[in-house]
Specification:
This protein has about 500 residues and is of the alpha/beta class. About 35% of the residues lie in helices and about 25% in strands. Helix 4 crosses helix 5 (about 145-160). It is globular. It binds adenosine-5'-triphosphate (ATP) and magnesium ion. Magnesium ion (MG) binds near residues 90, 169, 411 and 412.
Length: about 500
């Protein structure tokens, strides 16, 4: 292999029971470039990177991988790390209860006479935190920092081990615009220093901004690699190869006919779970009508998720103040279960904590909020459960050979579809969807928008928390703008623009 390439993937095939995740994949990554990998949910992107980095050992896949000119023969990630290859997975892998510096050096601290020199590592960690632009005390416990910072800690950890090839699996999916920009600029800076990166992302705008080459996978096959500049690559060109057809409308149009007010929230305040005197949400009042989509916008940390989770049976916060009315009656759900019984449903942004039981089947996860409905005389009707799960597999195109598959074996985006299916089956009147399309590919996004539109057409209501402004603008009948725990203003669909939302968030008008 010519020196020009740092990584060459040659005819790689990987199978799981009933699934061919990778089907004769071949492409090359040039030394020093930023190479982006695009494809629909379940196309095989994460699997391929696990093959490259030794998560899947050599004898578990077909074909060859060449790295720095030699064929690899890794048995674990440790082997690839030794050769300067680092992978940051889709689901962050830090130890939440350890400090930042312990996470950076975990597993590769040296001891002297059996003793670790902690002060040395605290000092050392500062070097790497500086390089990634994270100005945080290294002794801070990781779980106390946001996802954006945790992402940077992961990169600092990679740098501490000397990286030549950095693989990032959807690094910006949970970041806000500023955090994403920071991270992407960092990758560009590393490129100037000679590092090679492979980035997996569903955000095609950012792919075009940073990538030199884009490779597209579809159904486990490598479709082609584009040279971003020479091929004048556009989002449409990427999408066409990803889904194998043209996607015409990204936001399906809908005639909205909102009815009476179905939910009203008055002077709602929420207090921090640990620091009981800190208000995370401050005196929020809003309403939602039957048959409308209401979006909540604002910067990350504005308190949107906290507001919704606290309304949803106090699933967040040490306590709350204020009133919630559902269909004109005062409601005081004390748990998620009670909230569901009063007609609210919550689709979480975080599929791991509030979301799914990963070691259970897809079927069990989909039915778990609706067992009563699927039972007769207290016994779950197996056939009904299977029918419902099959229906959602088909409608949402959950990519799996069987609904008995364990949920953890699904690709990230397909897990997200299971979370949505579960709430759809529970059939609440008010759907609270928090970042409903995070990690979802462009094609499947449109399908999810179609589903939300259909719900409101049936007279249901949707509350949407979204950090993607185009999505909020494209979908919502009305938008509330939050910042610093407060609702700063309200806009109708026709009034709302990106600029106005920003202006309200920052200036309150
Ligand atoms: N451990 C496993 N057992 C069984 N099937 C698996 C396993 N890991 C992945 N798969 C399957 O392999 C296929 C490719 O999954 P992969 O996670 O690589 O997709 P992806 O392109 O990363 O998708 P996403 O954009 O949703 O993250 C999917 O059909 C997935 O269900
Ligand atoms: Mg993936």
């Amino acid at each position: 292999m010519a020196d020009e390439y740092i990584l060459q993937i040659d005819d790689v095939t990987k199978e799981f029971p009933g699934v061919r995740a990778l089907d004769h994949v071949s492409f090359k990554v040039k030394k020093g470039e930023i190479h982006s990998l695009c494809g629909e949910n379940g196309a095989g992107k994460s699997t391929l990177m696990s093959v490259v980095s030794g998560v899947y050992p050599k004898d578990s896949y077909g074909g060859k991988v060449f790295y720095k000119g030699h064929e690899t023969n890794y048995h674990s990630v440790k082997d690839s790390e030794k050769e300067g290859l680092a992978i940051i997975h889709q689901e962050l892998a830090l130890s939440p209860y350890l400090s930042i510096y312990e996470n950076i050096f975990l597993g590769h601290m040296k001891t002297r006479l059996g003793i670790i020199n902690w002060n040395f590592y605290i000092r050392e960690s500062k070097k790497y935190l500086d390089r990634v632009g994270l100005h945080e005390n290294p002794a801070t416990v990781v779980s106390k920092t946001g996802v954006g910072k945790q992402q940077l800690v992961e990169i600092a950890r990679a740098l501490s081990k000397q990286v030549d090839l950095l693989i990032l699996d959807e690094p910006t999916s949970s970041l806000n615009d500023d955090e994403s920009d920071h991270l992407l600029n960092l990758i560009l800076e590393f490129k100037n220093q000679g590092m090679t990166s492979v980035i997996i992302s569903h955000k095609l705008g950012e792919v075009l901004k940073v990538a030199d080459t884009v490779t597209i996978l579809r159904d486990g096959k490598s479709i082609r690699s584009f040279d971003v500049k020479a091929d004048h690559l556009t989002e449409e060109m990427i999408i066409k190869d990803m889904v194998g057809r043209d996607l015409t409308h990204r936001f399906p149009t809908r005639k909205s006919k909102p009815g009476e007010t179905i939910m009203e929230v008055k002077n709602w305040s929420v207090y921090h779970p640990d620091y009981h005197s800190i208000k995370v949400v401050d005196n929020a009042s809003f309403y939602v009508r039957r048959g409308e989509i209401v979006a909540f916008c604002g910067p990350m940390g504005a308190g949107r998720t906290e507001l919704m989770m606290s309304l949803y049976g106090l699933s967040y916060g040490s306590r709350s103040e204020g009133e919630l009315f559902l269909k004109g009656k005062k409601a005081t759900p004390r748990s998620a279960k009670e909230a569901l019984e009063t007609g609210m449903g919550y689709v979480s942004e975080d599929r791991k904590t509030l979301g799914l039981i990963l070691i259970q089947s897809i079927k069990n996860n989909i039915s778990s909020s609706s067992l009563q409905k699927l039972s007769r005389f207290g016994i779950v009707l197996n056939q009904r459960e299977i029918e419902e799960a099959e229906k959602y597999r088909k409608n949402l195109r959950i990519k799996t050979p069987t609904i008995n598959q364990l949920t953890r074996n699904l690709s990230g985006g397909n897990q997200q579809k299971v979370v949505l299916s579960r709430t759809l089956l529970a059939d609440p009147d008010i759907f609270i969807v928090d970042e409903p399309t995070r990690g979802i590919d462009v094609g499947a996004k449109t399908e999810i928008y179609d589903i939300l539109n259909e719900l409101v057409a049936q007279g249901k209501s949707v509350i949407m928390v979204s950090s993607e402004l185009p999505e909020a603008l494209g979908m919502a009948d009305r938008l509330y703008v939050m910042n610093e725990g407060k609702i700063k203003g309200e806009l109708t669909h026709d009034e709302a623009t990106q600029e106005k939302i920003m202006q309200i968030a920052l200036l309150g008008k």
